[in-house]
Amino acid sequence: MTIHKYYWCLFLVTVVVFIACNKDNTYRNENPSGDLYPYNVYEYLERQTTGFDSLLFIINKAGLKDTLATQDVTVFVPSDASIQKALTNYNDRRRGQGLSSVSLKDIDSSALRQIITHYIIRGKWLTDDVAINRDGLFLRTVGDRTMNVVQQTTNAGGVEKAGSQILKFSFMYSSKWTENWSSSLATTTNIKLTNGVVHILEPAHIFSFGNFHNRAAAAQNYWSDYYYYSYGTLYFPDGTSRPWGPQATANMRDGKRLTAISSNELIMDGGDFIGDPVFKIKIAIDNRDSVTSISPATAASDLTIQKHGPSYFDREKFTLYLDYQYDRPAGAPAGLRIIKEEMKLSKN
């Protein structure tokens, strides 16, 4: 090779390397600029090639795409494997009841929304934000539920708490005792996006924290799937009364569950008659949170049950105030009974 050809080849190599280096120094594909990906949360999940197809289906059917694209949120992401395992277990239960199997597309959108909103927290929360409180933080979801998030340090090389920082994400089952909570670890944390943060839950996570079969089987609405501490007073026709509260019976300590039957109707136990089919009541609530009617929930219920006075739901206090009545044609004393009840959300 002549000297002229040698320098010409060297020049071409230099040009190619220069262009390649310049190309590598510009943003492309999934490489974040600094530590921030230039996508919103929904776009980030959508761009992943595997692992989130079932999750995206639920998000879309539940009507939460816009929430993940525009609002400031932190998402604890369950894997498709954990979602499909929950669905398999649900279908095993259905077959045991003589029912056919279902897919995610067969489950009511309100139920899917209720399930998946437990994973979507309001605001942006990194591990450092959580670390400021030793007992973790009680964070509100976009579905107005409360979840606990606490930072933990893993062990490494046989040394206790010498490893990496991880997050423990817990559903509390309305209990202040941590041993009653259902928890999962976020094994990948602090994926920063334009409108939020993503933490990836471990593959062993139990989707919907063991409640998938209950929630998937029923309709849901804003007020449903809550356990309430209920306080009230039963007024008798002779002027006497009887109060009750969470400490009245063992059942009352667990609170009442509100179950949706439509977008604005609920079924619950009336008064302190836990489990008594005669006192099952149906409540209808309008979009201003006013209770429009209280009536018998089933054919087995006391047909004289009806609304008596002003009743409403207070969103600030997360409390349902009810005033209703029923009639006893016999007994001591016979006549109209009035129930005034205050139901306080137990935070789950």
From TrEMBL:
SUPFAM superfamilies: FAS1 domain. Pfam families: Fasciclin. Signal peptide: none annotated. Residues 39-205 form the FAS1 domain. It comes from the Bacteria. This is Fasciclin domain-containing protein. It comes from Niabella ginsengisoli.
